Amino acid sequence: MKKKQILIVEDERIEAEDIKMSLQKLGYAVSGTAFSGMGAITKAEKLHPDLVLMDIVLGGKMDGIEAASIINSRLDIPVIYLTAYADKKMLERAKVTEPFGYIIKPYEDRELLSIIEIALYKHKMEKTLRASKASFHNIVEKSVDGIIIVDRDGIVRFVNRTAKLLLGRETN
């Protein structure tokens, strides 16, 4: 089985090397290391890792939260924050980016392993669910049968193309 590729984003080089050694010891491959927010985006676009471990406080104009937001929206790569900061304001900002985890330094390797494994599994399941929803929507929309979905309150939530034609409604 192919080792999962992880991109490390950490502005402290010694810390980045420690993380790299921990990941390798845990059986992961490190696809690269970035030391800034812009570097993280560039490397993520180039390397397409399976996961990004992102420090929040980075040198440069862009912090890890901003970089994670861009990586998440452009590339659909799960991000786990790995940071020494746990204040409420930082946590609130980080939450908005929908991270797959938040680890506070210092941490144990077993904590890192469990959160990475859960994040990878959750991301895989979310992708499967999105694909399943798209297939379901496609099948229902293209069905030759008229399909109308109504909720418990009697509110129409969905009408497929055929049902609209049968009811004499616009199809756009």
Automatic annotation (TrEMBL):
Record's SUPFAM superfamilies?
CheY-like, PYP-like sensor domain (PAS domain)
Q: What is this protein called?
A: Response regulatory domain-containing protein
Boundaries of each Response regulatory domain copy? Answer: 5-120
- Output the GO biological process annotations, alphabetical, semicolon-separated: phosphorelay signal transduction system; regulation of DNA-templated transcription
Q: Please state every residue range assigned to the domain named PAS.
A: 132-172
Q: Which UniProt keywords apply?
A: Phosphoprotein
Q: Which CDD domains match?
A: PAS, REC_DC-like
Q: Does the keyword Hydrolase apply?
A: no
The UniProt entry's coiled-coil ranges are none
* The keyword Phosphoprotein belongs to this UniProt entry's keyword annotation: yes
